[in-house]
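Dear colleagues,

As part of the handover before I leave the project, I'm documenting each prediction I ran so the next person doesn't have to rerun anything. This entry is a single chain, and its sequence is reproduced below.
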Amino acid sequence: MNERIKRSNDELKADRPTISEVKFIPRLPISILVENVRSVHNVGSIFRSADGFGADKIYLSGYTAHPPREDLHKTALGSEDAVPWEYFKNPIDAAKAIKSEGISLVLIEQTKQSQMMYEMDWEFPICFIVGNEVTGVSEELSALADIHAELPMRGIKQSLNVSVATGVVGYELARAFSFKIEN
């Protein structure tokens, strides 16, 4: 009989920190500003990715769903209780509050001045901005960004789902931060 390769769900759960323990795990200087994301499931997925890569905070704004909501919890699976978050009705107010803390705003959007995110030398702390599933980040909020970055798209589609893009960007920035502090 072959030995099992994968760890069981119980083994994984045994190694996972509790909500009270996670408060003592250092967070990375990476946060997310979410503007007008209409799908509650996307917001829940953003919480899960943010929890996974160690985001410092999520700023939810506009008509983006925010906790407490049972439908959000179904996708976030408790990560909405682990990742610090704040809601702003006006995304511009959120951006100004973030910038006032000395945090650079990074627009994740294809703009006339955006660069491929894998080619950039990042300075932390960073807050990256993601937006609506159809229209992206508003022009008004885009204008407040310090840096414009995009993900390379090699197929027939011009963009990723907002929650998928958040995971890709978050993990890439986490990798870049870890590399920076190690070197």
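The longest strand covers residues 30-35. Residues 59 and 86 are 5 Å apart (CA to CA).

All the best with the project,
I.
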